[in-house]
Specification:
The complex is a heterodimer of chains A (343) and B (668). Chain A is α/β, with parallel strands linked by helices. Chain A has helices at 20-25, 33-38, 68-75, 98-108, 124-135, 139-152, 168-180, 198-215, 226-232, 250-255, 260-266, 277-280, 300-308, 329-342, and strands spanning 5-16, 42-53, 57-61, 83-88, 91-92, 109-112, 186-190, 218-223, 235-240, 243-248, 282-283, 293-295, 314-317, 323-327. Helix content of chain B is 81%, strand content 1%. The radius of gyration of chain B is 27 Å and the shape is globular. Chain B has helices spanning 2-10, 12-37, 53-66, 75-99, 118-150, 154-184, 186-201, 204-215, 219-243, 247-255, 260-271, 273-293, 302-312, 315-342, 357-377, 379-382, 393-432, 435-467, 471-501, 503-518, 521-532, 536-560, 564-572, 577-610, 619-629, 632-663; strands spanning 101-103, 110-113. The chains are: A alpha/beta (343), B mainly alpha (668).
């Protein structure tokens, strides 16, 4: 974890009810659920601490009512937190004036919504160009930029269509294009694929990964779908009842769940889809003949067919292409069998 | 040239620009044009072409009343029968509440049994309020009726209450029956719908005339008019309520083996009851509104007091009687609303709320007789002592006098400025439009917004107005209505947008609007005339006050129903507050704004006719004159002309709202 921190959130609270702020200040320790209930308050987000590193996909996973949508809205200041601090690129986000906040949103943030939230009275092109339009960017310039984005999400030719004429998947592509048009540093995606059919969802997830490979954004992704989280995330924060129960990489989460609640989710995730070669390889790479090279960040499931074809070992390379270990068929099979035994 | 013209008609902006420019030109130069061409037909519909429809209707009505028969009985006997059917319960109710039961006539009358004492009436209504809505409502209702007693309005108020007590059951029952029939038979519904439209858009005064002709001057005419006026919303509510009963309930009823009658009375109507109660509330409010207007054709009571005070320019008396109406309206409105809210929820625990209707009737009867007997000994229990009556009449007189002395010049300046720079130019514009071009222009507008069918309808209806020689009156109506709607919208819409965004503003404004809506339209005239005297300006102010509510409500609703995610999308796109309002909220609220405008126009037109009492020169005045002369034909034709204006406005705006909803991809 040597990347710089882009968004740093400490001790964040969002409490609904009368006099929530004074209630929180009047206490030294953080109140638990029963204390909140006695005061007739609801703790939507409770003492959230998280750091989002530059370039990573950070997923917040939780079921409905867990507070994940509230948390992301606090982080983008769409709603005001009750207490805590948020630093974005070193600046105190909560201390910003309305004007400064608008500037940050225009230049540094983008957001995709579950229900797409396209403006029905604007065309695809106008929707995508909208964030630039409100900044006062000249028409030819903003439209050129919007065209680029539309091309990026694969919607060329639909520029003059209205949102109602598009399918759900296409509408979300517009939403994605709109959120990217200002070239944001931090990209919020609030359950972007939850409203889509399963097949389209899969397709959009792939599309999302493809885009991220190209753009290398810092991403805060919200979902209630654990498999989606596993598939997309560099790190996952699991939320329950307004609290973050665990923050970890998918692999750590599956192999080492912090609570029963988290384990419940991981139970049905095949280990091979999560465990990376780095974890199971034999460290050190003696010279010799190998069947081929594999990247150390690949998942076991991705290499099964290739490794399974031959009895010879494969080299495992790190990001810089330096060999760091080896892996063979026996190891992969044992992981798969171990998986069966665990279940 | 032809090609260019057609092209520019397709482009919306140039279409409207072209239409307005040509209308303006023709309007400004119609008089010189007529002089130059010596063609008087340009500014005045040739009298040789006029239909004389009003005379024909008058003749027909005369024949109907004098000679028409159905074999067994004559038409006159029929109206007498209907009249008796209504009169008998009304007289009983009135005797109960206001006059007491007498034997003998005139001076020789002997009181057999006194009317209900003020204590009994108030107590019973409070009891009802406790049952419906708890002690707070009871306090409100009790306070309202005590006000009537203490301020000496009791006698008139009870006469008014008696008409309400008769008109509302009649209206509700006939509305229910018609609604059920329309629900059962689609053909009947298709037949009924335009009739209902017409009944609600024809100004009230217009059907006072034929009713007056058929039933004569007196309370019966007033009641008939009230029932006709108050019933249409009930029919609509019944229809909507029945149609929105969920499909699974139908299926459950059918599987339980209901006959179609059982289905209606045991499944559909009970489950639609909360909505039906909304209709009952509507009938009560409209009846109250109408009872006052009906005092012109012989309803006594508070309405008559207001009318008389208005004619005498007796400010204090008018305000007192007007306030008494308001007080009754508020009490009955809240009471019926409480009943409609309660209808499907568990009754609360106290013994009062578990009272059955039978127990209630027994209590009522016992109390009435008991108090009547005591009243023989202590007259104060029978009727509130004169000596303790408070009057505020002179206070109001003084207050208005003070305002007029101190602020006369301010009011005068406002009035003159608005008249000179707004009202008169717009009036000149509308009155100047030659009738022929007006018909064409309306046809074009209708075609543009809703296709050639709508264009044809608009042109035909406008043609009817012109053909009956009412073009000029109609244009004055359009101008007065237009200016009022413009101002009402200019005030109401921004307030509504504000209320849609701020909860606090919403609370304050919706309370205000709710109260304004409870006031019978008549009441608005009183303060306005006092401050601005009679004339078009006063009419305009009254219309603005009366018609502003829907502009505000619909705007607030339109803003509030925008999906929160879309607003958030605007925020993260970096919109300032101002951009959020102008670029996102307002465009998305356009359909609602249009519907609000539509409702504002409808209310403005209905108020416009009432303002004939304060001296306007439009179609409303035409109707009012017809009423005073009992000229049936004139009244009906002028009334239809007002209705047609309303229909044209309604269809055009509905078409606009529909296309804008479609453009936004919203469900139609």
């Amino acid at each position: 974890m040597d990347q710089p921190v882009l968004l740093d959130c400490k001790g964040l609270w969002k409490i609904y009810g009368a006099n929530a702020g004074t209630f929180l200040q009047s206490r030294d320790s953080s109140p638990d659920t029963s204390a909140l209930e006695r005061a007739n308050l609801t703790g939507a987000v409770r003492d959230a601490n998280l750091q989002i590193l530059k370039g990573e996909i950070f997923v917040i996973m939780g079921l409905s009512g867990s507070g994940k949508s509230t948390l992301v809205r606090c982080l983008s200041r769409l709603i005001e937190a009750t207490a805590g601090s948020i630093h974005f690129e070193g600046q105190d986000l909560l201390a910003m004036s309305e004007r400064e906040l608008i500037d940050v949103r225009r230049k540094k943030m983008g957001m995709v919504f579950q229900q797409f939230a396209l403006l029905p009275h604007l065309t695809v092109l106008q929707n995508v160009a909208f964030p630039l339009d409100v900044q006062g960017v000249h028409r030819s310039e903003r439209e050129a930029r919007a065209h680029e984005m539309i091309e990026l999400v694969g919607l060329n030719g639909r520029e003059t269509a209205y949102p109602r004429e598009l399918s759900g998947g296409q509408q979300q592509r517009v939403g994605i294009a709109r959120s990217l048009v200002g070239d944001p540093h931090l990209w919020f995606l609030d359950e972007p694929f939850s409203a889509l059919d399963p097949l389209i969802r899969r397709e959009m997830q792939n599309e999302f990964l493809r885009l991220q490979n190209k753009l290398h954004k810092t991403i805060l992704f919200i979902t209630h779908d654990f498999e989606e989280a596993i598939r997309l995330a560099d790190r996952i924060a699991v939320m329950k009842d307004g609290e973050i129960v665990q923050i970890a990489t998918p692999e750590q989460l599956v192999s080492n769940p912090a609570t029963d609640y988290v384990e419940e989710f991981t139970r049905h995730i095949p280990r091979t889809k999560v465990i990376q070669l780095e974890t199971i390889m034999k460290a050190g790479c003696p010279a010799g003949a190998y069947a081929g090279d594999l990247s150390y960040s690949m998942k076991v499931a991705d290499v099964v067919s290739e490794v399974g074809k031959t009895s010879r070992a494969f080299r495992v390379l790190d990001d810089d292409g330096v060999p760091v270990g080896t892996i063979n068929r026996e190891k992969v099979v044992s992981v798969m069998l171990g998986q069966e035994l665990v279940e | 040239m032809n090609f260019h013209l057609r092209d520019s008609l397709r482009n919306p902006r140039s279409f409207w620009l072209l239409l307005f420019a040509s209308t303006w030109l023709l309007s400004s130069y119609s008089f010189p044009l007529y002089k130059a061409l010596d063609a008087r037909w340009i500014i005045k519909f040739p009298s040789a072409w006029q239909w004389q429809l009003d005379e024909r209707i008058s003749t027909f009505m005369a024949w109907l009343v004098e000679d028409a028969g159905f074999g067994l009985f004559t038409f006159r006997q029929l109206t007498r029968f209907l009249s008796a059917l209504i009169e008998a319960p009304y007289n009983t109710m009135r005797a109960f509440l206001a006059d007491g039961f007498h034997s003998g006539l005139g001076q020789q009358a002997v009181e057999i049994f006194p009317s209900m004492s003020w204590i009994a009436v108030t107590f019973l209504l409070v009891l009802l309020a406790v049952k419906a809505g708890g002690w707070r409502l009871a306090a409100l209702v009790g306070g309202c009726f005590l006000y009537l007693v203490v301020f000496g309005q009791w006698q008139s108020a009870m006469v008014t209450l008696a008409s309400i007590a008769i008109a509302v059951p009649f209206g509700v029952l006939s509305g229910l029956m018609l609604g059920i029939l329309a629900y059962r038979s689609e053909r009947f519904e298709r037949l009924l719908r335009p009739l209902l439209d017409l009944m609600q858009t024809v100004p009230i005064f217009a059907y006072l005339v034929p009713i007056l002709f058929l039933f004569g001057f007196g309370p019966v005419s007033a009641l008939v008019a009230t029932i006709i006026y108050a019933m249409p919303p009930m029919v609509r509510v019944v229809l909507v309520a029945l149609q929105s009963v969920p499909e699974p309930l139908h299926e459950a009823g059918r599987m339980a083996g209901c006959t179609s009658r059982q289905m209606m009375w045991k499944v559909l109507l009970p489950s639609a009851l909360p909505t039906l109660m909304v209709g009952v509330n509507q009938v009560i409010m409209l009846s109250l509104n109408m009872v006052i207007i009906a005092s012109i054709i012989g309803a006594g009571g508070l309405g008559y007091d207001v009318l008389a005070a208005l004619r005498r320019l007796d400010i204090g008396g008018g305000i007192e009687a007007g306030l008494a109406i308001v007080v009754i309206a508020i009490a009955l409105d809240r009471l019926s609303q409480a009943f409609s809210l309660n209808v499907h929820s568990q009754a609360r625990g106290s013994s009062v709320t578990q009272m059955t209707p039978l127990m209630y009737a027994v209590i009522a009867l016992a109390l009435t007789i008991f108090l009547a007997l005591i009243g023989k000994v202590f007259p104060a229990i029978q009727s509130y002592p004169e000596a303790m009556v408070l009057t505020t009449g002179s206070f109001w007189d003084q207050a208005i006098k003070w305002i007029n002395i101190n602020f006369f010049e301010v009011f005068e300046a406002i009035k003159t400025a608005l008249l000179t720079y707004l009202l008169l130019p717009i009036k000149r514009f509308f009155v100047g439009i030659p009738w022929a071009w007006g018909i064409i222009a309306l046809g074009l507008i209708g075609w543009r917004v809703g296709g050639w069918r709508l264009g044809f309808l608009c042109a035909t209806l406008a043609g009817f107005v012109a053909a009956n020689g009412l073009w000029r009156d109609a244009m004055i109506t359009v101008y007065l209505c237009g200016v009022s709607v413009l101002i009402a919208a200019a005030i109401g819409m921004p307030l509504g947008v504000w209320a849609g965004q701020s909860e606090r503003a919403d609370r304050v404004l919706s309370t205000l609007v709710d109260t304004l809506q409870t006031l019978p339209s008549f009441v608005y005239l009183i303060p306005v005339v006092m401050l601005f005297r009679v004339g078009e300006f006063s009419a305009m102010v009254a219309i603005v006050l009366y018609a502003m509510a829907p502009a505000l409500r619909y705007a607030a609703h339109g803003i509030r129903e925008i999906s929160p995610q879309v607003i958030e999308a605007g925020k993260v796109s970096g919109c300032t507050r101002w951009q959020l309002l102008w670029r996102i909220k307002l465009p998305l609220a356009v359909p609602s704004l249009l519907l609000g405008l539509n409702q504002t126009i409808m209310l403005a037109l209905s108020m416009l006719v009432i303002t004939a009492l304060v001296g306007t020169r439009d179609l409303g005045q035409e109707v009012y004159i017809a009423l005073t002369k009992a000229n049936t034909g004139q009244g009906i034709v002028a009334g239809l002309a007002v209705a047609f204006i309303a229909i044209i406005a309604d269809r055009i705006l509905s078409a606009l709202a529909k296309s804008s909803r479609a453009r936004l991809g919203l469900a139609i």
